[in-house]
Amino acid sequence: NKVSRRELARRILTKAPKAVLEKSHFNHSLPLKDLIKKFDISCTTFFKWLKEYGIPTNRRAHLEKHSFSGNPAEKAYLQGLAFGDIHVRKHCRQLVAELSTTHSSMIELFCKTFSNYGVVRKTAKYNKKTGRFGWAIRVSLDSSFNFLLSKKIENIDGNYFYYFLAAFFDCEGCLFTYNNHNYIGLSLILYNCNKNVLEYISKNLENSGFNPKVNKWSSKGTKTSGGYYRGKDLWAVSLYTCDEVKRLLEEMPFRHDEKLRKAEVVLSTAPSKKWKDVANKVISLRNQIKEEVKAFVSQAA
To answer: 3-state DSSP call for residue 227?
Structure first.
């Protein structure tokens, strides 16, 4: 008697959308074996889908880099970032610009600034110093960005000082609005361990009619609010008068979304000078930003 064969069970696969597959494929923090596991498919099926969608199978092909535009204003802005929070280092024949932060606005700024020049990659990161999660973001750049490796003040084009200052403010600046004896109090402070760059900023502000003050903000070895101890002295350059703070906010082409929203509240207060007229807006925005940071950190945990 002939034995009837059992029909083979066929698994019905639902092909992943092109956008999802492409994003996953070019996420270089995930090795190929994890991508296959993520979609619960074989290696053959994975590359078959790529071919059907016309997605390059070579992941390195997606890492195309573009040379710097040469725009002097943009160059000054990028230098301001490099003197601030964004770390730039040499890696073989290319450069790597990277940043760690808990603020989504800083991630957005990084992406908008560098996405035209290379592939921006973001990963969750645990900060041992602060004991909390955050995000790390990086991009590989070609050798036309070598000017970002220099930490010499004399290499900054003074004609584009406010572009440099705007980027430095985006990274290292704080804008405070507070109750000053029932009147609106304003202060703008830039913090950094590099005293030379703060003195450079102060000198240029003085030449433009401002009255900045440079002072040591915190000493080496001081315990910070994050729970770790400073490895260097922290310096600050400050403006404390309302008129000067408002004028500088109007001069700087800064891009950080949180600071843009704070500046909008500050600049919309004129001609009122009473704290009661802006208190609700200031406090509401302050709480909103805190919640945004909290939510952004929780995504990384």
So the answer is: coil
DSSP-derived secondary structure letter, 158? G
| Contact residues for 155 (Cβ-Cβ < 8 A; gap 6+) | 79, 147
How far apart (Å, rounded) are the C-alpha atoms in residues 226 and 216?
19
User: Quick one: tokens of 225?
Assistant: 């609010």
What lies within 8 Å, CB to CB, of 117 at 6+ separation is 65, 66, 67, 68, 139, 141, 142, 145
* Exposure of 180 in the CB half-sphere (CA atoms within 13 A): 12
d(CA 186, CA 250): 14
Distance CA 25, CA 82 (A): 30
Cα–Cα distance for residue pair 292/301, rounded to 1 Å: 15
191-242 pLDDT, tens digit per residue, is: 999 999 999 999 999 999 999 999 999 998 888 877 778 889 999 999 999 9
**Using one digit for the tens of pLDDT, what is the confidence trace for 33-77?**
777 888 888 888 888 888 888 877 766 655 678 999 999 999 999
> Residue 292: phi, psi to the nearest 5?
-65, -45
In whole angstroms, how large is the CA radius of gyration of the chain? 25
Q: DSSP labels for 1-59? A: -PPPPPPPP-PPP-PPPHHHHHHHHT-TTS-HHHHHHHHT--HHHHHHHHHHHT--S-G
In whole angstroms, what is the distance from residue 235 CA to residue 192 CA?
5
pTM (predicted TM-score): 0.79
Question: What contacts 62, CB < 8 A, 6 or more positions away?
Answer: 25, 26, 56, 119
Whether 246 and 252 have beta carbons less than 8 Å apart is answered as no
- Banded model confidence at residue 91, pLDDT cuts 50, 70, 90: confident
For 246-265, letters b (16+ CB in 10 Å) and e give bebbeebebbbbbbebbbeb
Which residues, 6+ apart, have CB-to-CB distance to 83 below 8 Å?
Answer: 151, 164, 168, 192, 194, 197
Q: How far apart are CA 12 and CA 150, in angstroms?
A: 57
